[in-house]
Amino acid sequence: MRSLLLIDNGSSRPDSTLNLRRIAERLAERVGEPVRPVSLLHADRVPAERLDGRPAEILAPTLRRLVGAGVRDLRLLPLFFGPSRALTRFVPELAAEVVAELGPFRLEIAPELCPLPAGEPRLVEILADNLAAAAERAAIEPRRVVLVDHGSPIPEVTAVRRRLALELAERLGPGVRLEEAVMERRPESEYDFNGPLLEEVLSRLAEADRATPILLSMLFLSAGRHAGPEGDIAQIRARIDARFPPLRIEVSPLVGSHPGLIEILADRL
User: Fold this and answer.
1) What per-residue string of b and e applies to 80-119 under the rule 16 or more CB within 10 Å gives b?
2) Residues of the chain with pLDDT under 50
3) By the 8 A CB rule, do 188 and 176 touch?
4) 63 and 140, same domain (yes or no)
């Protein structure tokens, strides 16, 4: 019998691990078999008492424990938008180490959430739904949208955001101006493909027009360091609000909170 592992990058914020568990529980109900929530790194820094008394599971020790107990058929479901090095390098290297230590086993990595060139139209619908929810909550018309993600030095990962941005812009129509931004990027010019930082984009838009609200389309799965309460995005928003009154910046829900994500993950099986 196979063992299903839902994997994310991991975060030192408890909300991220708790969200991973919620998604795993809903996915298990959907597919009718257990799904183990596992992080690659970082989550083991969170005290168990902040995780309902149950410490986070980390991939390396979990993989060794399962294979050591005789499990020989594992499938990893990545909670990643694109082909992160975690999937293309870290996991295969870890698997090779475990094979050398404990013998052969089968490890299959399912496609990420938005594999290219096929893409994933349902992600675009999730982003559009979340924007509509944010606009309705704030009682505004979406006219300026910024699609923001973590940012990556890997062109193939950035290509996923660019693809989603193009399709989301088409979905929203010509009356909406959509831009892209990142939370992290390397300063060298060879990484310009990654896009501009969020605070730079918001400053430019605010200087041009303080009257038209800005909606942030959050290309994040969980409330970690960037997207969590009092996280980096909340702090940037507060700084822009202070500099450019009466500009309004509204934030969409996260992709990981949308029920449509479960259907995408189920199809990866």
Assistant:
1) bbbbbebbeebbeebbeebeeebeebebebbbbbbbeeee
2) none
3) no
4) no
